[in-house]
Amino acid sequence: MQTIPVSVLMSVYKKEKPEYFTQTMESTLAQSVQPDEILLVEDGPLTDELYEQIQHYRDRLAGRLTIISLEKNQGLGTALAIGVKNCRNDLIARMDTDDIMANTRLEIQYNTFLKNSELAIIGSNIIEFEDTIENELARKNMPLTNEEIRQFSKKRNPFNHMTVMYKKEAVIAVGNYLPLQGFEDYYLWVRLLKAGYEGQNLPEFLVYARTGNDMYNRRGGLKYLMPGLKARKRIYQEGLGSFTDFVSVSAIHIVICLMPTQLRGKFYKRMLRK
């Protein structure tokens, strides 16, 4: 099996289900080309079941699995920032510990970087599913070209976080991940774009993303409303959008957060997906 100089970066915390983590790892090991490093940040103490699974892959992967253990839960932004700094490769592929990669994901993205040295970040479309990948809920299509991505970023997140492969050097140059509850990735992308770095989304569906009612629940209520408004203000201040863009997306954010969960799910599927 061919190995490529790519680090797969993941962060796991105690609420992750061990079976989801296992599916993510197996999809990584099923890649048509293998990353020469998987870096896993343990964001605070985990469950015994998760530690057992991690030990299984530590034994199986030997030197290809790098583990960083944080004494306390730091949150996704901080955990990923630490992970980025410690990845041994300049190309880093992000992955969530409950999603599943298509078998050719890493190969396609790596080859795209080889063809275009100007790119700093590459993402893709996703298929959203619940329980099993056969139970498809929706498909999320993203803007493809650098200019389309820049325009899209003024109002919405232009990349699916679990699909991106980016250059470590570029991410660190704009300040790395910073804590911004629920919007750590979006905040990083707008800083990359504003600094002039180029991005691209591939038309292929390279990741199966786990969604369903759990996600729709997390995207609503006052606990998501207020941090979301603060985050959108920060993104507006450091991004590419106008004040009108900020007002319009904030209004939509308020409406979505106050919707009943069932209605919110329908809105995501019909209005924000294709």
What does this structure look like?
By secondary structure, the protein is α/β, with parallel strands linked by helices. It has one domain (3-271): Spore Coat Polysaccharide Biosynthesis Protein SpsA, Chain A (Alpha-Beta Complex). The protein has 11 helices and 9 strands. The protein has helices at 18-29, 48-61, 76-86, 105-115, 146-152, 168-173, 184-194, 213-218, 222-238, 243-258, 261-271, and strands at residues 3-12, 34-43, 65-70, 91-94, 100-101, 119-130, 132-140, 165-167, 198-210. Helix 1 (18-29) packs parallel to helix 2, helix 7 packs parallel to helix 9 (222-238) and helix 9 (222-238) packs antiparallel against helix 10 (243-258). The longest helix has 17 residues, at 222-238. The chain is globular and about 50 Å long. The model has no long low-confidence stretch (mean pLDDT 90).
Mean of the pLDDT scores?
A: 90
How widely separated are the two ends?
Answer: 36 Å
Number of domains: 1
Provide the CATH superfamily: Spore Coat Polysaccharide Biosynthesis Protein SpsA, Chain A
Helix content: 40-55%
In percent terms, what proportion of residues is strand? 25-35%
- The CATH architecture: Alpha-Beta Complex
Reading the helices and strands in chain order gives: EHEHEHEEHEEHEHHEHHHH
The secondary structure category is alpha/beta
As a whole number of angstroms, the C-alpha radius of gyration is 18 Å
CATH fold topology: Spore Coat Polysaccharide Biosynthesis Protein SpsA, Chain A
Low-confidence regions = none
Number of strands: 9
Text of the CATH class: Alpha Beta
Global geometry: globular
The number of helical elements comes to: 11
Described by strand count, sense and barrel closure, the largest sheet is:
9 strands, mixed
